[in-house]
Write a structure and sequence with these properties.
Elements (H helix, E strand, L loop, with lengths): L1 H23 L24 E8 L8 E12 L14 E8 L8 E11 L27 E12 L5 E11 L13 H7 L2 E2 L5 E8 L6 H5 L20 E10 L19 E11 L12 E7 L4 H4 L6 H6 L9 H5 L3 H9 L9 H9 L25 E4 L33 H9 L45
Antiparallel strand pairs: 1-2, 2-9, 3-4, 3-10, 4-5, 5-6, 7-8, 8-9, 10-11, 10-12
Length: about 475
């Protein structure tokens, strides 16, 4: 059944692609990504990568590791049964690390899933009363539609070959948070699905509460926000869940030469992170190897494809790799969003070219560019623009309770745009950045530019202070 559904999705995507050719006159590949903002991904939610997070782990005792999270299946209604929200068996979910600045991955961690059905004769889906209807453990017979996955590390090898190392296999995904009868102790199930692997890695794959908090309705109603301050808005994503992939990696495994940097300005201190989802265009081999993967999703820094890349190029952006991002540079140098902010709110904005935004999104911030923080840098580039979520792994982590949600703009150098933690308010940060309300553009670093927000300053479900950090998913049928 899953194979048939996947084929239908591909046919639908191809048809939409044909429609786009008719509209734009340009043949766009059937590819898209990220919170339903690109034309084609709305028909392929299992591959839709919504958010990427990369940060020094701040769980006590794990500070020498890097946490990488990336989410899929946007805006999940908690009661969406009977199948709820499994990952795609025919999708390769990758998180990629560039540690040289050329826009190409040097390390990849790949999650590959396989679905199992305990009782195919049941009329129900993810949960079925095969015993008592309560999923008390990951191997409970009432967990009827379940998934296992393999995590593989990929690195460049000799003569253009790829070296593959399986880090873990047969790992279980917890069920979605179905309801008070089927999953009465949900976080216990989620804890069972956090695996510590023999090489010091930890992994998790499963449902979490949506942690990307914003007034979605106000943003896309032509910036008709209920409040342009820190509070007073409506968190549109509050009722929804999301599917999360998570891996915690020893710091030195991600840097060039696998070395621990000596300082924040050490040339090996900064890494670039982005995720992709690829569908298999040919039959998957028995060992799960996909011979001809076709990239259908890409995401690095938040909100780039949503509010920087124009509609006609969103699908193309998601079809390409960061090494080819020079073609998108004009939209960062002279973006449309600041002009919309100027028109709606009557504010002064910085003139093009916006080299401040190029530094944040395309090259990284050079050392010495941040007033009062001469050792701060996220620079990672070979001289060409590459859209990546850049993280300086030498900057120490800050415990959750002490974090400033505005990251660098709030004086917290461990936060966005130095990577991205789950607590970072990237919407408020981005609004102020594009409006020129930052120290990088002193002429416009004034009110209201440097105080803009969407009125939402936290999620409704609190974050965890431990791996995998995103909050407990909302129950589909609470008590």
């Amino acid at each position: 059944m899953r194979t048939i559904l996947s084929r239908i999705c591909l046919v639908v995507a191809a048809a939409i692609s044909c429609l786009l050719i008719g509209v734009t006159g340009v043949a766009s590949p059937a590819l898209a990504s990220s919170h339903r903002e690109a034309p084609l991904i709305a028909g392929d939610p299992l591959a839709d990568n919504t958010d990427v997070y990369a940060f020094r782990s701040y769980e006590s005792g794990r500070e020498e590791t890097i946490t990488l999270l990336w989410n899929h299946i946007p805006l999940e209604p908690p009661s969406g049964g009977p199948l709820f929200y499994p990952f795609g068996d025919d999708i390769l979910y990758d998180i990629k690390i560039d540690n040289t600045g050329d826009g190409e991955e040097d390390v990849t961690y790949r999650f590959k899933f396989q679905t199992e059905i305990v009782n195919p004769d049941s009329v129900l889906g993810m949960v079925a009363p095969n015993q008592d209807g309560v999923i008390a453990a990951l191997d409970d017979p009432d967990y009827n539609l379940r998934q296992r996955y393999t995590v593989t590390e990929l690195r460049p090898g000799l003569m253009g070959r790829t070296r593959r190392k399986v880090l873990g296999s047969g790992l279980s995904v917890p069920p979605s948070n179905i309801g008070s009868r089927a999953t009465p102790n949900y976080e216990t199930l989620a804890d069972q699905a956090v695996y510590t692997l023999s090489n010091g890695y930890r992994v998790f794959a499963g449902q979490r509460a949506e942690g990307f908090y914003l007034d979605l309705g106000g943003v896309f109603d032509v910036l008709n926000l209920k409040s342009i301050a820190d509070t007073g808005g409506t968190n549109s994503t509050a009722p929804f869940n999301v599917n999360t992939l998570a891996i915690e990696v020893p710091l030195k495994e991600l840097t060039r030469g696998r070395r621990v940097p000596k300082s924040t300005t050490d040339p090996i201190a900064v890494i670039g992170v982005y995720s992709t989802a690829s569908r298999c265009s040919s039959k998957i081999a028995k060992d799960g190897f996909c011979q001809k993967p076709v990239q259908v999703s890409r995401l690095g820094s938040p909100l780039v494809n949503e509010v920087v890349i124009p509609l006609g190029l969103k699908d193309k952006f998601n079809a390409t790799d960061p090494k080819d991002d020079a073609q998108f540079a004009p939209f960062v140098l002279d973006p449309q969003l600041p002009k919309l902010l100027q028109a709606v709110y009557g504010i002064q904005i910085p003139p093009a070219p916006r080299n401040d935004l190029v530094a944040v999104f395309a090259t990284g911030i050079p050392a010495g560019a941040v007033p009062g923080a001469p050792q701060y840098t996220t620079f990672l580039s070979d001289g060409k623009p590459h859209e990546l979520l850049r993280l300086n792994v030498a900057i120490p982590p800050i415990p959750l309770a002490q974090q400033n949600r505005l990251g660098l703009l709030g004086g917290d150098v461990a936060g966005f745009p130095n990577g991205r933690r789950v607590n970072d308010d990237v919407v408020d940060i981005a609004l102020r950045a594009v409006a020129g309300g930052t120290p990088f553009t002193p002429d416009t670093n004034i009110a209201p530019n440097n105080a803009l927000g969407d009125g939402v300053d936290r999620p409704d479900v609190p974050f965890l202070d431990r791996f995998p950090y995103l909050g407990t998913p909302i129950s589909g049928n609470p008590r």
